[in-house]
Design goal:
Oligomer: homodimer
Strand content of chain A: 5-15%
Shape of chain A: globular
Strand order of the largest sheet of chain A: 3-2-1-4-11-10-5-6-9-7-8
Largest sheet of chain A: 11 strands, mixed
Number of helices of chain A: 12
Number of strands of chain A: 11
Chain lengths: 327, 327
């Protein structure tokens, strides 16, 4: 198993990606990693670290795609970026997956262009884990496709179903279509048509609403990338902002220091699933390869988790199952 | 000031609407109320209550629109419903506003048909209050219009701006367009065109994302009714579901009873703004009248707050300002 890691993807480069890769080598003795990035930077990040050098390969990729750079421009103007080089190595079969905590838009575009689409896939999608009272559930699309057609939403549902079952261990994933009401005539024309098409899937539970996400009234929540991205970012903002409100309450109530500490401790622990660092990277589903993106703020632990997730996805043969399902 | 109250709108009828109306009479000595609903039911709800009978007028409306009834069917088949009768009285000038905790879809449809649109308004909209670290902010559209054109979103922004300023006391309401990214080329074609049109508004702060809602990085969040409705219902589901997660944490930590009580108390108080009962009804903006809808679960206190909100909206001449702004 060989995983390529983007050394210059994310806010904490090169230390988070390199640190995460070394952690993954410890977790998985049969793993080899390709560290893709500017050679000198990669070497200096490895400096003084203890690791099995025979399992670490430095791949020089001198160009860096910035976190806020325009995806289309970055792809065109930087053919030697870590993203382009890493994904090309994957395409050539020199590694089993590519992981990065870099620019999501650029990664999606490059994954689609360089790896190509799986047979039968209309549009690659990005999924996100969403916390619920029953643990993580899946939201698809999380921002890759803001304009969708019903046939695309149906494919998102089917790819999400396979991912939820094989990667998240949900036995019979229930598929719900996010809408403004339960009745099948609700919503936009795209949603009404999608509802009719989704009826042919045995696990389709119908329309679900915004209030059905947290209680996990479905396992795979299907939506367009606008709705999904707004929900994703809203969820990520909960910890910080509820924390601010909580501080206000604690102050108003003149809570003793010890009690305040307990309250914050319980709160932090409760909202931990909403912290993006606890999710080990999200896959682009529908591309002909295994390409995962992590949150820009990824810690070494988050990168480590993303690498393990990539290995899992390769071993579970998710892509073969997607091709078979869409045939 | 005469306000018509739907006696049979909501989950707790007739007691919540009648109780709320009597509370409002106490709050505002110059108020008169029309109680619109099946006469016998209204009379029995008033039975034994102490109130100034000269300020309470019972209007018989024998038909009831159910909470889950199809709006279009309800409007056509029940011309003597409390909704139809109450809004017609308002149209005839026999009251200054109509409030109901009933079927939102039916109320929107009936308000649009019976009251008509304000001059220049393309589509009436429904707004919702959204909690933030700075207090409530405005989300528009909250579900009335799932398919929108750019010109509609611009009108939602302008109506929302007037409402935020005159009804919510936000001096210079900043307008943000909910999107997947800050850059003006982001999002759907409708969003990109809307962005260009919104630029002509001095208070437009550009695109905002899901993470910008809770910190109130805008005061008026403009979106289509699909996004708005999903966010609205997601927000309403927070208290219950975070409560479930909190209970799990408290159990895992084996927290002593006293500490657990403190934790739940602080949590309840902190999330109070997310409880829909604390918002005093939401207006349909753009209709030629003052028509407010409350949450189905409205308590007498919530109905009371909705009546006071309706009075405020009449006195602030919100509709005159909307007509002037759109001229």
């Amino acid at each position: 198993m060989v995983i390529a890691v983007d050394v210059v993807g994310g806010d904490h480069i090169p230390d988070s990606p390199v640190g995460g890769a070394l952690l993954a080598l410890e977790s998985n003795p049969s793993l080899q990693v390709l560290l893709v990035g500017p050679e000198a930077m990669t070497k200096s990040a490895l400096d003084g670290k203890v690791y099995d050098a025979s399992r670490v390969h430095i791949i020089d990729a001198p160009e860096i795609v910035g976190m806020d750079e325009s995806p289309s421009k970055a792809i065109k103007s930087k053919p030697n970026s870590s993203i382009a080089v890493g994904l090309s190595l994957h395409k050539q079969g020199k590694c089993d997956a590519f992981v990065s905590a870099g620019n999501t838009g650029a990664l999606l575009a490059a994954s689609t262009v360089i790896l190509g689409r799986l047979q039968g896939v209309l549009r690659p999608t990005i999924v996100t884990y969403y916390p619920s009272v029953k643990g993580f559930r899946l939201l698809v699309d999380a921002g890759a496709n803001v304009e969708v057609r019903p046939e695309m939403l149906v494919q998102f549902a089917r790819m999400g179903e396979i991912y939820a079952r094989d990667m998240m261990g949900i036995a019979e994933p229930k598929i719900g279509l996010l809408n403004v009401g339960e009745e099948e005539e609700k919503g936009t024309e795209v949603l009404r048509e999608s509802h009719q098409l989704l009826k042919s899937l045995p696990n389709f539970v119908g329309n679900v609403e915004g209030r059905d996400i947290l209680p996990a009234n479905a396992d795979v929540f299907v939506c367009d990338g606008l709705v999904g991205n707004i929900l994703l970012k809203f969820g990520e903002s909960l910890v910080t902002n509820l924390g601010v409100l909580l501080k206000q309450t604690v102050k108003e109530l003149h809570l003793p220091e010890e009690a305040a500490k307990t309250v914050f401790g319980v709160f932090q622990r409760t909202l931990k699933p909403f912290d993006p660092d606890n999710v080990g990277g999200l896959p682009f589903l529908g591309v002909d390869g295994v390409s995962l993106v992590g949150h820009g703020s990824s810690s070494p632990k988050a990168i480590h988790n993303m690498i393990l997730n990539a290995i899992h996805m390769v071993e579970a043969k998710v892509n073969d199952k997607i091709v078979a399902a869409l045939r």
